[in-house]
UniProtKB/TrEMBL annotation:
Pfam families hit by this protein: DUF934
Organism phylogeny: Bacteria, Pseudomonadati, Pseudomonadota, Alphaproteobacteria, Sphingomonadales
UniProt source species: Novosphingobium anseongense
Name this polypeptide is given: DUF934 domain-containing protein
Domain of life, per lineage: Bacteria
InterPro entries in the record: UCP030820
């Protein structure tokens, strides 16, 4: 079984951070930002060292642009909290985690057992991930 390292934020209200991607660079003390669909996460790359939280909004189930934002940030070295917010459903959890999300604030609560099952369904992966799990080929061929 895979040891999951994630947090659900149902105990913490999700509020839109005052800082958007467009205005983040002009803020001197901002440590969190919210990425909306259509925002370019690459604009945050010069500021990764000062970011503690990046929220990525998923306004609907079919909008997958947030996956790309997460992957881009993790591959660039972002190590802070990466939180998926909005229309986050149990069948997306394993894919969100693979892209590097470690925190989730869904619009509707998810059953904890269903979430645990989703995170542990595929302990081995074939492609490189943003969550640190080695791909099967690297286990085989070192």
């Amino acid at each position: 079984m895979v040891e999951t390292q994630y947090r659900f934020r149902d105990d913490e209200p999700v509020t839109d951070p005052a800082v958007t991607v467009d205005s983040f660079g002009d803020q001197t003390n901002a440590a969190s930002v919210r990425i909306e669909p259509g925002d370019d996460a690459r604009e945050l790359l010069p500021f990764l060292d000062r970011l503690r939280l990046v929220e990525v909004n998923f306004p609907s189930f079919g909008d997958g642009r947030g996956y790309s934002s997460a992957r881009l940030l993790r591959e660039a070295g972002y190590e802070g909290e990466l939180r998926a917010v909005g229309a986050v459903f149990v069948d997306q959890l394993s894919h969100l985690r693979r892209c590097g999300f470690d925190s989730f604030a869904p619009n509707a609560p998810l059953d904890p057992q269903d979430a645990e099952n989703a995170f542990n369904r595929w302990p081995d992966v074939y492609q490189a991930t943003g969550d640190g799990r080695p791909a099967i080929w690297s286990k085989r061929h070192g």
